[in-house]
Amino acid sequence: MSSDVKAAYSARATEYVEQLGSVASLHPSDRALIRSWAREVEGPILDAGCGPGHWAGYLAEHGNDVRGVDQVPEFIDHARLTYPGVSFALSSFDQLTEATASVGGVLAWYSLIHHEPGTVSTVLDEFARILRPGGALLVGFFVGPEVEPFDHTVATAYRWSAEALSTELSAAGFQIVETHTRTGQAPKPRPHGAILAQLAPNANPESNAPNHR
Q1: Distance (Å, rounded) from C-alpha 88 to C-alpha 80?
Q2: What is the structure's pLDDT at 141?
Q3: Residue 188, SS3 per DSSP
Q4: How far is it, in rounded angstroms, from Cα 72 to Cα 70?
Q5: pLDDT 10s digits, 68-105
Q6: C-alpha distances in angstroms, 86 versus 22, 58, 64?
Q7: How far apart, in whole angstroms, are the C-alpha atoms of residue 147 and residue 19?
Q8: CA neighbours within 13 Å on the CB side: how many for 30?
Q9: Per-domain residue ranges for the chain?
Q10: 3-class state of residue 184 by DSSP
Q11: Contact 174/124 with Cβ under 8 angstroms?
């Protein structure tokens, strides 16, 4: 996330929390997908781009060992206050503090949408580094016929086709498990997607260091 995007979210953090900072306000199919995915994760989960902490709080409530990270200080402050039993940290995705092969799952729910296509591989490499071989990744994203920018409410974001994002995931050492799509509700009925992936069991964590490609 660039400094400009981070500043844009900081400026609208209160509005974001009011509209999207509750699991109850989000699509029920998203809740079902994330919950069913988390049930199968073995080991701790990192909520990468946790925002105001609602998904991390939801997973912790259902028994998962989860930690949230985000680059927006206002989101982290809100998350710590609202979910005091969950650990939250201010951190960049490009260089996470988690040790290599130390987590069982990574949730990246719409947290990659502001990364330019040329930089998303760095983040996926970092996810592959911290995941245990066989670890699980769930990515939420906006769907389009091709990789293209669009005017997101907060800052420029990118749509991905499932095929293009799957190619990036495969290059980072992931195997695609499932792909889901749905259309959002009015007034913004844009297509949404989710990809469940698994780090190859024989992945070499040291080969997944950032910028190795």
Answers
A1: 6
A2: 96
A3: coil
A4: 6
A5: 999 999 999 999 999 999 999 999 888 899 999 999 99
A6: 16, 10, 10
A7: 27
A8: 24
A9: 3-208
A10: coil
A11: yes
Q: Which residues contact 54 (CB under 8 A, 6 or more apart)?
A: 21, 22, 23, 26
Look up residue 59 and give its two tokens. 């997973």
State the DSSP string of 9-66: HHHTHHHHHHHHS-GGGS-HHHHHHHHHHHHT--S-EEEET-TTSHHHHHHHHTT--E
Neighbours of 171 (CB within 10 A): 13
What is the average pLDDT across 2-6? 67
Q: Cα separation of 178 and 175, whole Å?
A: 10
Predicted confidence (pLDDT) per residue in 115-148, tens digit: 989 999 999 999 999 999 999 999 999 999 999 9
Nearest to 34 by CA among 213, 212, 192, 202: 192
Tokens 């409530």 belong to: 61
Half-sphere exposure of 156 (CA within 13 A, CB side): 9
CA distance 61 to 45: 13
d(CA 120, CA 94): 9
d(C-alpha 30, C-alpha 181), whole Å:
10
Name the DSSP letter for residue 167: H
| Residue found by looking up tokens 């260089």 in the block | 95
SS3 100: coil
Label the pairing between strands 131-143 and 191-199.
antiparallel
What CATH fold (topology level) applies to the domain 3-208?
A: Rossmann fold (3.40.50)
